[in-house]
């Protein structure tokens, strides 16, 4: 990164270095030697939260673990006349993850509260920091479990969902020491929550390209995912003339390029991340192909219309090529807008700290903030990450940027 892109904040540099050191330390709580992999309700989850709890106590916070396994710390107000402020992110990771996705937001929040406490700053509200135990869904393929518990949207049916070894969430919770009958007590839905704030790495290259350490998030894109099964007729690669084939892969290929072209025209994003030829062989015309579609937009109406239109286009390609295509929706999450007042507050805070115009940007990735938006005004601050890389061991951030983010977060809390 060019040196001119850096914004130095003297005061928080020592604290930022401590954040970086703690991120390195937390990365050692992993199920895989030499890699970062930390899934829900595992020994690594327990050890990492024990460490986070110790840092919270060191910062002078009151600590507890909730009924779904999230770790909390509270900066107590002596006169809490207003609702509580919650600041959080997640502590779990994908397989062979980077060190910063999620953990950065948790450790920065602990550092900010520690600083406020050291400076004897008295607030008219409690400030809670939370490490959500399961955002990625690495073990059970169900995302946002930690924040669903806090938002009061935990579905009891989830207790039966099993991991790859056949252990259910319910069994894993019991083994972890959690009481499944007490899960509703994790909910903060009825409480007076003044705001939910989350600091997270951008997971994209926009801030780096603008030369800015931080940016204010406008909203989180809604997403829909489908699995499409295309069935044609398998046959001999040498004997069936091209015009008499029902090649499922050629049909799928046309569908995939149509998805890309349509998404471009609509200004949305669509990705085919998986594509399998069932029983494929070098001398066999593909008879069955399965592929995935992930479609996202910040505009919920556009997302809904685009999905309907696209599925119709896939059907006409199937008809033309005399194959069948069946699409099954496997996931959906609605688009969420960040609270406008909190966005303005973040904007003035970041402009004050960086002395550059604020950059507003949407989040294409899902976050715990989506769930928290159901119970409190929500907002997010993105921190620049190197080349926009995430979910990858190459994930990296600058200590200078963490210093900027910390100053912004502290100013934001006191400005609320
Ligand atoms: Zn994350």
UniProtKB/TrEMBL annotation:
GO terms for molecular function: hydrolase activity, acting on carbon-nitrogen (but not peptide) bonds, in linear amidines; metal ion binding. Its cofactor is Zn(2+); Mn(2+). It comes from the Bacteria. Keywords: Hydrolase, Manganese, Metal-binding, Zinc. Residues 219-305 form the Peptidase M20 dimerisation domain. Binds 2 Zn(2+) ions per subunit. Zn(2+) 1 binds at residues 90, 101, 200. InterPro entries: Amidase_Cbmase, Bact_exopeptidase_dim_dom, Peptidase_M20, Peptidase_M20_dimer. Zn(2+) 2 binds at residues 101, 136, 391. Signal peptide: none annotated. Allantoate binds at residues 225, 283, 296. Belongs to the peptidase M20 family. Homodimer. PANTHER family: ALLANTOATE DEIMINASE-RELATED. This is Allantoate amidohydrolase. It comes from Vibrio albus.
């Amino acid at each position: 990164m060019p040196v001119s892109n850096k914004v130095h904040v003297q005061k928080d540099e020592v604290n930022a270095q401590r954040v970086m050191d703690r991120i390195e330390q937390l990365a050692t709580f992993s199920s895989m030697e030499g890699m970062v992999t930390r899934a829900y309700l595992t020994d690594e989850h327990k050890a990492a939260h024990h460490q986070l709890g110790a840092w919270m106590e060191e910062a002078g916070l009151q600590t507890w673990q909730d009924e779904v396994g999230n770790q909390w710390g509270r900066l107590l107000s002596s006169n809490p006349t207003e609702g509580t402020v919650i600041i959080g992110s997640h502590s779990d990771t994908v397989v062979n993850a980077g060190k910063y996705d999620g953990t950065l937001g948790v450790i920065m929040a602990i550092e900010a509260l520690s600083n406020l406490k050291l400076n004897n700053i008295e607030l008219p509200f409690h400030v809670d920091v939370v490490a959500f135990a399961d955002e990625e869904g690495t073990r059970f393929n169900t995302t946002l479990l930690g924040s669903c518990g806090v938002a009061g949207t935990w579905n009891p049916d989830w207790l039966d969902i099993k991991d790859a070894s056949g252990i259910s969430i319910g069994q894993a919770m019991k083994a972890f020491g959690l009481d499944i009958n007490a899960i509703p007590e994790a909910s903060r839905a009825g409480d007076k929550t003044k705001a939910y704030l989350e600091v997270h790495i951008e997971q994209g290259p926009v801030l780096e390209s603008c030369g800015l350490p931080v940016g204010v998030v406008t909203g989180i894109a809604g997403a829909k995912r489908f699995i499409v099964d295309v069935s044609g007729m398998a046959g001999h690669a040498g004997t069936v003339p091209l015009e008499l084939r029902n090649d499922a892969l050629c049909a799928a290929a046309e569908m995939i390029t149509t998805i890309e072209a349509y998404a471009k025209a609509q200004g949305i994003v669509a990705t085919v991340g998986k594509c399998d030829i069932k029983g494929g062989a070098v001398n066999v015309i593909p008879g069955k192909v399965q592929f995935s579609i992930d479609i996202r937009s910040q505009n919920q109406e556009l997302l809904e219309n685009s999905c309907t239109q696209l599925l119709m286009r896939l059907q006409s390609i199937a008809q033309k090529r005399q194959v069948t295509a069946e699409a099954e929706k496997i996931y959906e999450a609605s688009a969420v807008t960040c609270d406008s007042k909190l966005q303005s507050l973040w904007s003035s805070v970041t402009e004050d700290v960086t002395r550059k115009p604020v950059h507003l940007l949407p989040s294409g990735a899902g976050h715990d903030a989506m769930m928290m938006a159901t119970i409190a005004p929500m907002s997010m601050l993105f921190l620049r990450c190197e080349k926009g890389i995430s979910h990858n061991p190459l994930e990296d951030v600058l200590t200078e940027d963490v210093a900027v983010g910390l100053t912004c977060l502290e100013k934001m809390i006191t400005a609320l």
